[in-house]
Design goal:
Layout: E1 14-15, E2 22-23, E3 28-31, E4 34-37, H1 38-50, H2 58-83, H3 91-105, H4 114-144, H5 155-163, H6 165-168, H7 172-186
Antiparallel strand pairs: 1-2, 3-4
Helix pairs in contact: 2-3, 2-4, 3-4, 3-7, 4-5, 4-7
Bound molecules: zinc ion (ZN).
């Protein structure tokens, strides 16, 4: 069973990596470095084409991604409000849920513009999480000083936060953006098929 590649008979039949059928090497193609028979190559080409993203799925992919992003943002904000600790690593969850939302919204389509859609949604999720945490702090401070109890989306709260948004950002936010975008883009990424 000592069959090194260098000792292989170049004219011996080769097994297809997909269906296992053995064919003469001249009847084989290569996909992603694996030998495939010609019928399987046709299937592969058809599947690759079928999984290409049609623009019709983009709106639902965006909606799905935003739902996932806001879900992740509320988990992050909820934990920060409940524990008074802002756990930035939850950015990965925001990104991941954005990616899952995009994938579900795109009804199984992968690749194309979908990783970028997921990345954009995850950024919306991060901003939403930041806003949620800031709104909690602002409304709590106003109430503690004997002011009215304001809603998180009260125009006064929105104004205070948007005017001070820059001061809410720290150096670690760059890391959370990288983690979130990376996690988001991985989920709806397409598979690359290199046919030779
Ligand atoms: Zn095959």
């Amino acid at each position: 069973m000592d069959e090194g590649i260098s000792e292989r008979d170049p004219f011996a039949d080769v097994a297809c990596a997909l269906c296992g059928a053995t064919q003469a090497p001249t009847q084989m193609a290569t996909a992603n470095g694996h030998p495939v028979c010609l019928p399987c190559l046709d299937d592969l080409k058809r599947e690759t084409k079928a999984s290409q993203v049609s623009s019709a799925v983009i709106p639902t992919a965006v909606v799905g991604g935003l739902i996932g992003a806001l879900l992740g943002a509320s988990v992050w904000g909820g934990i920060a409000i409940a524990t008074d600790v802002e756990i930035g690593y939850i950015a990965v969850l925001v990104g991941f849920l954005s990616g899952v939302g995009v994938k579900l919204g795109a009804r199984g389509a992968l690749g194309g513009p979908l990783p970028m859609v997921a990345a954009a949604c995850s950024l919306v999720g991060l901003v939403a999480a930041k806003y949620l945490i800031a709104a909690h702090i602002v409304t709590k401070a106003v109430a503690e000083q004997g002011g009215p109890s304001l809603g998180y989306l009260d125009s006064q709260v929105v104004t205070i936060i948007t005017e001070n948004f820059g001061s809410l950002l720290g150096i670690f936010d760059i890391l959370w953006v990288v983690l979130a975008v990376g996690a988001a883009m991985r989920v709806p990424a397409g598979q690359h098929v290199n046919v030779q």
